[in-house]
């Protein structure tokens, strides 16, 4: 894997690169300006692979060899969260957003599936099924 492994278009027009072996996060805003930001968790050997934009505007990075989940909030705050299942060797590769706001990590070497919930009971069928809003 390279320094970054995928990208996510945020609701504010920023494109976030998914940090694989990067020491910093990187984004391009809608006017084309490239900038970096601090990450809470870094790993030199494939931390994340792919990402998903949650309905609340958070960008979630999909854990490949990371021990924790990591997200960038719609306000730009980077934070981590605990995972039920962790692996240091290619656990998940990409993710999918469901119409109920759950993000399912796509298993690569993981023996267990894993999801995170980003909404509480609100269903947004037309947005989640849109090829424009639901990207890997």
How would you characterize this protein structure?
The protein is mostly beta strands and 136 residues long. It has one helix at 125-128; strands at residues 4-9, 15-19, 24-28, 34-38, 48-53, 59-63, 69-72, 78-81, 92-97, 102-107, 114-117. A hairpin with a 6-residue loop joins β10 (102-107) and β11.
How much is the average pLDDT?
87
Oligomeric status of the shown chains?
Answer: single chain
The coarse overall form would be globular
Low-pLDDT segments: none
Count of alpha and pi helical runs: 1
Strand content: 35-45%
| Secondary-structure element string | EEEEEEEEEEEH
Q: What is the third-level CATH name, the topology?
A: Methylamine Dehydrogenase, Chain H
**Radius of gyration from the alpha-carbon trace, in angstroms:** 14 Å
Give the total of beta strands.
11
Derived from helix and strand composition plus strand pairing, the structural class reads mainly beta
CATH class: Mainly Beta
Distance between the termini: 16 Å
Largest sheet entry: 4 strands, antiparallel
Structural domain tally:
1
- Going by CATH, the homologous superfamily would be YVTN repeat-like/Quinoprotein amine dehydrogenase
């Amino acid at each position: 894997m390279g320094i970054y492994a995928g990208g996510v278009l945020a609701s504010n027009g920023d494109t976030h690169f998914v940090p694989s072996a990067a020491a910093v996060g990187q984004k391009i805003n809608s006017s084309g300006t490239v900038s970096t930001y601090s990450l809470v968790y870094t790993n030199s050997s494939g931390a994340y692979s792919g990402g998903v934009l949650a309905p609340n505007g958070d960008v979630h990075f999909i854990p490949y060899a990371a021990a924790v989940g990591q997200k960038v909030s719609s306000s730009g705050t980077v934070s981590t969260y605990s995972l039920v299942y962790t692996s240091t060797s290619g656990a998940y590769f990409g993710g999918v957003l469901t119409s109920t706001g759950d993000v399912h990590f796509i298993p690569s070497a993981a023996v267990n599936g894993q999801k995170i919930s980003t909404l509480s009971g609100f269903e947004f069928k037309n947005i989640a099924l849109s090829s424009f809003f639901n990207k890997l």
